[in-house]
Amino acid sequence: MRTKYCGTISADDIDKEVVICGWVNSRREHGEHLAFLDIRDHTGVIQCVVDAKNVFRSETVVKIKARVRRRPEGTSNESLATGEVELFDCELTVLSEAAPLPFAIDGHHETDEQIRLRYRYLDLRRERMQYNLRLRAKVISAMRRAMEEEGFLEVETPLLWTPTPEGAREFAIPSRLQPGCFYVLPQSPQIAKQLLMVGGFDRYFQVARCLRDEDLRADRQFEFTQLDLEASFIDEEDIRSFVTKAVIDATTAATGEESLQDYLSEIPIFTWREAMERFGSDKPDLRIDTEIVDLGKGLEFTSFKAFQAESVKGLLVKKGACYSRSKLDQLIERAKALGAKGLVWMKVIPSSDDDEAATAGDISKGSKSLESPIVKFLSSEEVQYIIDSTSAEVNDLVLIMADSWKLASSVLGQLRIENCPSKESSKRFRFCWIKDFPMFEGLDEDGNLIAAHHPFTMPHEEDMDLMDRDPLRVRAKSYDLVLNGWELGSGSIRIHRSDIQAKVFTALGISEEEAEQRFGFLLKAFSYGAPPHGGFAIGIDRLVAILAGEDTIREVIAFPKTQSGTDLLTGAPKQISLKQLRELNISVKGK
RNA sequence: GGACCUGUGGUGCAGCUCGGAGUGCACGCCGGCCUGUCAAGCCGGAGGUCGCGGGUUCAAAUCCCGUCAGGUCCGCCA
Predict the structure, then answer these.
(1) Over the stretch A392-404, which tens digit does the pLDDT of each residue have?
(2) What's the CA A480/C1' B71 distance, rounded, in angstroms?
(3) Which of A124, A310, A502, A577 has the fewest CB atoms nearer than 10 Å to its CB?
(4) Adjacent-strand bridge partners of A92
């Protein structure tokens, strides 16, 4: 039907006849005998010279047979890739007329997301979505290639799976042939891929759709896509190297910048404990340089009651001394909203000769003064210690929290993200690994431990003896991949020995009968010779969103749902007919 | 389940604090003019349940209550 894409026509085509197809992007009329139509396809735009009777409304789909010529002297358009040439002698066929559009395709102003989603097919025509979805395809393609180069085999697993009540809420699918019974859509192919390991496919991967019936967020949809992988006879480092290759290849393919390889290939690894200590988060944003500082040592014997806590930590806010009193009050409120009892601030200001404020105390060397509601409760050594530990300079602000280790860390970690500037640098993509997560998160109402991951995660061998004595200190052989403060994926080495599995089930308060009922088929599979194995899953939507510079994964999904789980384009979810319900043996209660 | 933000011709915004006639800007749409524009330009026109419901008031886009939709977040997401 066509011989050329619009955006690819160049001076090389001058005097040639071409046939193009596309949408009317814009038109400029100059009277009866001269008008310009810009025709657009996904490659770009080309100007066609026509007469007025061949002018059609924007977004009309046309086919144009025409000749290419150099534009007349002085009329070329340098801001257009095809701006040197134009089509003339146009034989124009209207393939499909367009009604006036609800919003403009050319993105000169933002359109409300609600309207974009209602007319998603129009939104998809826009450059932003064209770019994002093509970027997504590049990323997935690069990942597939990376996995295949490492000897991984792509295997599909069922969407209609069995309920394994744990973790995320599942979507249930009623069975027509087995009345009253349900399949569920998989939260992830976790168990299926472990069965593939038992089945001897020792390197598996899949671009897998996962489904979780949980509340939606900017980085969470009901359905999302993972690069899911699992391998046998490997250790943690092997998994990290497979995943590293996949994400670096994907990033390089997406950006086209080979130069990124150098810093990307050295992904730092933090233990969970270390990440919490230094960044106050298990998904630290490394684009922010500032780290949380432990002040426990120098304040060990402080007489200031509020600082007599399990943990005292400080956060330096560069140039923060200019914060107003109300801004500081907001910070304290924010800390309280995050669960803190309080927050102490300390401004470092230039010392002045007529310094007489009751709240200000001189520190040594005379160049710095402090302004803080609590400085009078601290010794000058303690104050100096805080200044030195945080490397605070004149015009900086120090935030200090005394609380439990976990709370002090996580609250300052959140304040770090909200108040400390991230560095503008060439290192746009800051990956890191977090490993050695705690095996258990805490206790539930019944006093049972709560698994931090799924119950098949292998504990560290050297922590096995803690399982009975101090289970909360047991570290798991699990690892997360983090990019710019987003959790990109996680994985673990799995338990393949029944004695360890039994211990973990016991710790979690899962009885033998219950384990048998929930995962019996998996445990049975493990009894017939299961290889040591482990794996990982990378959130592709999140990765692509970050690579595309988007704030939500909806921008990299063709047809996403709203926060309340509806599809504004189709109107789903909808009621189904009584006939359908009868076939499924389902009756619906009124609201 | 909870907190906060948004909702004004087809689109994007202003108007809301301090109530006074649906007032304004840009784009689009319709008609006219225009032979080198390129987000063309010029002239004219049409287009509104100010999300919806209630309340306060002589008077509500504006203040109050409720509700719906969209978003951000908490809870939730092994």
Answers:
(1) 999 999 999 998 8
(2) 29
(3) A577
(4) A64
CA of A31 to C1' of B31 (A): 15
Size of chain A in residues? 591
Q: What is the DSSP string of A113-182?
A: HHHHHHTHHHHTTSHHHHHHHHHHHHHHHHHHHHHHHTT-EE----SSB----SSSPPPEEE-SSSTT-E
Q: Which of A411, A387, A393, A391 is nearest to A401 (CA)?
A: A411
Distances (CA, A) of A405 to A82, A134, A165, A286, A437: 61, 45, 33, 21, 16
Cα–Cα–Cα angle for A398, A403, A406, rounded to 5 degrees: 100
**CA A351/CA A357 separation, integer angstroms:** 11
Amino acid at A473: R
Phi–psi pair at A67, nearest 5 degrees: -110, 155
Residue A507 identity: A
What Å value separates CA A558 and C1' B22?
38
- A107 pLDDT tier (thresholds 50, 70, 90): confident
Which residues are paired to A315 by β-bridges? Answer: A399
Q: b vs e for A328-362, b when ≥16 Cβ sit within 10 Å of the residue's Cβ?
A: beebeebbeebebeebbbbbbbebeeeeeeeebbe
Give the closest residue to A25 by CA, choosing from A114, A132, A130, A138: A130
CA distances to A148, A221, A235, A467 from A461, rounded to whole Å, are 32, 36, 13, 10
Within 7 A of a protein CB, which nucleotides of strand B?
Answer: 1, 10-13, 27-30, 33-41, 69-78
CA nearest to nucleotide B39 C1': residue: A108
Q: pLDDT tens across A501-525, in order?
A: 988 988 888 889 988 988 899 999 9
- Domains annotated on chain A, with CATH: 6-96 (2.40.50.140), 128-269+537-581 (3.30.930.10), 288-419 (3.30.1360.30), 429-531 (3.30.930.10)
Q: Which residues contact A288 (CB under 8 A, 6 or more apart)?
A: A416, A417, A420, A421, A422, A423
Give, rounded to a whole angstrom, the gap between the first and last alpha carbons of chain A: 54
Q: d(Cα A347, Cα A370) in Å, to the nearest integer?
A: 6
Q: Is the pLDDT of residue A341 over 90?
A: no
The closest alpha carbon to A19, from A65, A73, A74, belongs to A65
Q: What is the DSSP letter of A187?
A: S
